[in-house]
Amino acid sequence: MWHEHDPEPKVRISEKWEPVFAGDHAQTRAHRLLSGMMNYSDASIGASTIAPFLSLEGVRKTYPGVVALDGFSMEVRPGEVIGLVGENGAGKSTLMKILGGVTTPDTGTITVDGVAHDGLTVEASIGSGIAFVHQELNLFENLDVAANIFFGREPLRAGPLKLVDRARLRALAAPLLKRVGANFSTDTPVSALSLAQQQMVEIAKALSIEARLVILDEPTSSLPLAETDKLLDVIKALKAEGISVIFISHRLHEVERVADRVVVLRDGMLAGTLPKSAINHDQMVKLMIGRMLKEREKAAESARPPGTVALSAKAIRTNAYPDRPVDLGVRHGEILGLAGLVGSGRTELARVLFGIEKSLGGALQLDGKDLVLGSAADAVANGIFLVPEDRKLTGILLDLSIAQNISLPNLPAHARRSLVSVRAEAATAEKQKSNLGIKAPSVATRTGTLSGGNQQKVVLAKWLAMNPKVMILDEPTRGIDIGAKAEIYGLMRALADAGVGVLMISSDMEEVIGVSDRIAVMHEGQISGILDKEQFSQENVLLLAVGKQPK
Amino acid sequence: MSKKDLGLLILILVVGAVVAIINPRFLLPINLANTSNLIGLFGILAIGQAFVIITGGIELSVGSVVALLGVLFIDFIATRGMAWPVALPLILILGGMIGLAHGWLITRLKLQPFVVTLCGLLIYRGVARFYTADGTAGFAFGQNFPELEFLTAGRSWGVPNSFIALIVIAIVMWVVLHRSVFGRYLYAIGKNEEAAKYSGIRTGRVVMAAYVICGVLTALSAIYFAMYTRSISPASHGQFYELYAIAAAVLGGFSLRGGEGSLIGVILGTVLLQELQNLVNLLGIPSSLNFAVMGGVILIGVLVDQQWGVFRERRLMLEATRKGAAGAAAE
């Protein structure tokens, strides 16, 4: 149960770590903490009597062309809550895959309970008591809580029919729910539970396999604040039982609240470990970024000053956060970066701007005139184009040829008396193919056979073949190799220089800072701030993304 | 003509040759004319169904619509004295409206095509039976409509006019499906409706149009069937016709997931189905086995097609790896 009189009131904890943002003072404090961290070594704690439950030693994992994890070592002791933080692509998910036994490291050892392994299998991972609670829950909404906890391991009645012993099932599930402090019964259907309650079911499931290490992957990213508190309490309860927890989160203030130790990953390497006394927001951000910004891409140089506002959202409300109106305007000739954590409502905003999703309120304006979008077709007719986040599902039709994909939004222009002119279609496609440097045998090639970068160029080509006024790009370079990335940045800049308003949603910090002219940051459904070029820093973006003020 | 269509055509010719050898009556003009008449009637239905299937939908109410509109048509011209040039377009409009209603329920109210058209199947059958009080709708003795009868049940140069109608409709619909902007939209939606929507296509309207086309063609075939049987007992008339249409499309290479199939395919599918019906009759197979033979042939056809696809894919992959290995060695 959620005690009203919690022994550790949350308010006090968060007050304790209220960051000090006063210039020099914060700097020196940060330096002191940093040097303290450097001196700190795991050996000093190794002296403690408890042997680690799990330790990783010099783990390295490479994928073709990428070193995902390099020389990574960490230990997890019983009853310890470890905060694991790092930017997208820092290697967190690779680490999780290794711990879950989904993939094995190239080199390095994993020691569980004193037994060294070269790599774990899924069975070994589960067998040694490592349980995962993923961001996307894996529950059957149509079944009740008890059935979910013991799915596939149901207690059976004697006899050939293998009937489920429902009474025993409930009796087994009840104490588990009590341990996670659930205030619902075992026969509640999962569909009736809130997200946090569903996560409790997942954790109860973990307890049912006698988990000794529970790994929570972004458990709070989709939770409202009140629910988050409940989850953090559950983590404390697990800790009290001697179960270790690895807590992965972008929400650094939550990490501050529950972690005994914070492990920071950066570019696949251990950027640092912070002991309890050194955990604070600024420290974590510093370690996550680590280096000075790389040279900015050429794309950063704008050839023209921004013009008037092209597309603006006035108090638009989306399904993601129905009670939070968003105001945002993208100007002609600029690249407006839209940063924020996954789930902060950026994609939903883009969908509203493109007319795919209906706004729950507010208004859109294009060049100062009111704009009503009933469908994506309306947006396209007005020159507002979207390069969507999920290329394969919504960006292109994998089964159609390059030419057919490029002509699709503008097919009537490639037709005479509503019969498609294959020749006109091919001509447009050929032009775009050479302009964008799409690498394919011909424009009749099936798009499904192209590489990610070339597929993305096809998505861009279909819009460039028309006359964009506003171009919205949702994670335009996700899963694309570096060469193609640079080309896409160049295209975006060329568009902006031609007077198009470009709105770029991106979770890639360097991309946001390197390419944008202004950066708007979203936090829980609202624009928490807009940064001008001179205010650009990864730290500022991260601060706004977690709802704090920039420096 | 795609390879698939060509394969189907060869199958039709081989089966035809075998039947002709066993029972030469297969090639008698009267038999060929009868069979091609049926091909015409069912072909028009199947083309309509194909337009719906290409979007990933299904239209199950076809048989009931054939009964209802057939009853209405005969009633209009035989008992109510409506001139047939008025009744015919009226029936086509009614068919279109039924299609529009289905399309509206499916695209605007987001109901599943299967559910909507299954309800249609039950509703229209019920209404047809109620309309005639479960009686038989037919013409009075001596009632004649020479022009209409010529257009529907007559023959030109020995060829049934229903078959000629099918050819004309097939040519028009081939252009619509394979050459027009609308046809391209249909395929795009069938392949990936979301991506089509994100390309600015008004997918709802296009899907609705497909159901309207299906409704109009079904109405037309309802008139042909009515004039062919000349009397309709609404409890059984047109029963299972939706399944003939779906079977023809599936035999013709359509995927029920949408986005795949050709107009020639669905026509050849219809031809093969009617050939099989004819084969059952001519080879003295008990006609009670009629459906079993059809089902068996469709199952085998789909199975062969699917296995052939798997085989080809595997061969392509083997080739690719061999090439890849050779390339690596060369480097």
From TrEMBL, chain A:
Its main location: membrane. Gene3D superfamilies: P-loop containing nucleotide triphosphate hydrolases (3.40.50.300). InterPro entries: AAA+_ATPase (IPR003593), ABC_carbohydrate_import_ATPase (IPR050107), ABC_transporter-like_ATP-bd (IPR003439), ABC_transporter-like_CS (IPR017871), P-loop_NTPase (IPR027417). CDD domains: ABC_Carb_Monos_I, ABC_Carb_Monos_II. It is a peripheral membrane protein. It holds the Pfam family ABC_tran. Residues 54-292, 303-549 form the ABC transporter domain. Keywords: ATP-binding, Cell membrane, Membrane, Nucleotide-binding, Repeat, Sugar transport, Translocase, Transport. One of its GO terms (cellular component) is plasma membrane. GO terms for molecular function: ATP binding; ATP hydrolysis activity. It is found in: Cell membrane. PANTHER family: CARBOHYDRATE TRANSPORT ATP-BINDING PROTEIN MG119-RELATED, D-ALLOSE IMPORT ATP-BINDING PROTEIN ALSA-RELATED. Belongs to the ABC transporter superfamily. This is Monosaccharide ABC transporter ATP-binding protein (CUT2 family). It comes from Mesorhizobium tianshanense. The lineage of its organism: Bacteria, Pseudomonadati, Pseudomonadota, Alphaproteobacteria, Hyphomicrobiales.
TrEMBL record, chain B:
PANTHER family: ABC TRANSPORTER PERMEASE PROTEIN YPHD-RELATED-RELATED, SUGAR ABC TRANSPORTER PERMEASE PROTEIN. It comes from the Bacteria. Keywords: Cell membrane, Membrane, Transmembrane, Transmembrane helix. It is a multi-pass membrane protein. One of its GO terms (cellular component) is plasma membrane. It comes from Mesorhizobium tianshanense. One of its GO terms (molecular function) is transmembrane transporter activity. The chain crosses the membrane at residues 44-74, 86-106, 157-177, 206-227, 291-311. The keyword Cell membrane applies. The keyword Transcription regulation does not apply. It is found in: Cell membrane. Its main location: membrane. This is Monosaccharide ABC transporter membrane protein (CUT2 family).
